[in-house]
Write a structure and sequence with these properties.
The protein has 250 residues and is an alpha/beta fold. The protein contains 11 helices and 5 strands, in the order H-H-H-H-H-E-H-E-H-H-E-H-E-H-E-H. Helix 1 packs across helix 2, helix 7 crosses helix 8 and helix 9 runs parallel beside helix 10. Bound molecules: adenosine-5'-diphosphate and magnesium ion. The site of magnesium ion (MG) has 5 residues, from helix 6.
Length: 250
C-alpha cells in the first residue's frame, strides 16, 4: 500500500489528538489484545474526550465566571432557608434554560448569591450551554455605550449567543433613566427565549429603587417573574462568619 503516513492523514482529517496518541494506544491494544474495532473505538473516544475538554475550557474562559465557586464547594448547612435539593435539581436538569426561564437570587450581602449564581453557571456550561457572567453595572454601562453608538440591538443580539446570562448585583445599577432603560431593554429582549440568573440585595418591593419610573419597574418585574425560579437566602453573612472564625475572607 502506497499511502501517506498516519500522522499526515490524521492531521489532514483534523484529528490532532488521535495523531498524538494512536501509537501509544496501539501498544496498549497489543498488550491487552484488543480487537481492531475496540482499538478504533478507543482512539476515536480519545479524540472526542479531548475536544470536549478543550471546548469546555474555552467556554469557561469566555464565561468570565468568578473562579473557585462551584456548587460542590457550597455549604448548604450555612443557608437553612435554601433547599439544597431544589438548587441541585436546577443544576442537574437544565430544562429551565431550554425554556428561557430565569432564576432570581435574593438575600443580603455575603450570603453566597454570587457563589450560587456561579455554581449554576458552571453546571450549565458542563452540560453544553453557553454562559456569560457580568456584574450588572458593567453590562449596563456596556449596553448604554452601545445605545449611544446606535448599536444596542446588535449588542443585544450578540448576547443571544449565551443561553444563560448571569447578572450579578442588579441592585447596584445606577438609577438614571439611561442605565435602567437599557436594563429593561435587555430583559424584554431575552423574555421567554433566553435565561437570566439575577442576584439582588433587594427584594422586589424595593425594585422601584432600581428602575426609574414605576411603569418600567412593573413591566420589568412582570417579565422577570413570569417564568422564574425564586431563591431567597436568609443567613448570616458567610464572609463575616468566616472572618470571625479565622477561616480567611474575601
Ligand atoms: P453575596 O454575593 O451574597 O454577597 P458571595 O457569594 O460573594 O456572597 O459570598 C461571599 C464569600 O463567602 C465568597 O467567598 C463565597 O464563596 C463564600 N460563601 C458564601 N456562602 C457560602 C456557603 N454557603 N458555602 C461556602 N462558601 C460560601
Ligand atoms: Mg455577590
Amino acid at each position: 500500500m502506497n499511502l501517506p503516513s498516519l500522522e499526515v492523514l490524521l492531521k489532514s482529517l483534523r484529528l490532532p489528538h488521535m495523531a498524538a496518541r494512536w501509537e501509544q494506544l496501539e501498544q496498549q491494544a497489543q498488550q491487552e489484545g484488543w480487537s481492531y474495532g475496540q482499538y478504533l473505538k478507543v482512539v476515536c473516544a480519545y479524540e472526542h474526550a479531548q475536544r470536549d475538554n478543550r471546548r469546555l475550557a474555552r467556554y469557561l474562559k469566555e464565561a468570565h465566571l468568578p473562579s473557585g465557586k462551584s456548587l460542590t464547594g457550597f455549604d448548604f448547612a450555612a443557608c437553612p432557608t435554601l433547599e439544597r435539593q431544589r438548587v441541585m435539581q436546577l443544576a442537574s436538569n437544565l430544562d429551565w434554560i431550554r425554556r428561557g426561564e430565569n432564576i432570581l437570587l435574593f438575600g443580603p450581602s455575603g450570603v453566597g448569591k454570587t457563589h450560587l449564581a456561579t455554581g449554576l453557571g458552571i453546571a450549565a456550561l458542563e452540560r453544553g450551554h453557553l454562559v456569560r457572567y457580568w456584574s450588572a453595572t458593567a453590562l449596563v454601562q456596556y449596553l448604554q455605550q452601545a445605545k449611544e453608538q446606535l448599536t444596542l440591538q446588535r449588542q443585544l443580539q450578540r448576547l443571544d449567543r449565551y443561553g444563560l446570562l448571569v447578572l450579578d448585583d442588579i441592585s447596584y445599577v445606577k438609577r438614571t433613566e439611561a442605565e435602567t432603560s437599557v436594563l429593561f431593554e435587555l430583559i424584554a429582549h431575552r423574555y421567554e427565549r433566553l435565561s437570566l440568573v439575577i442576584t439582588s440585595n433587594h427584594s422586589f418591593s424595593d425594585w422601584g429603587e432600581i428602575f426609574t419610573d414605576t411603569t418600567m419597574t412593573v413591566a420589568a418585574i412582570d417579565r422577570l417573574v413570569h417564568h422564574a425560579h425564586i431563591l431567597e437566602i436568609q443567613a448570616e453573612s458567610y464572609r463575616r462568619k468566616s472572618a470571625h472564625s479565622g477561616q480567611g475572607s474575601n
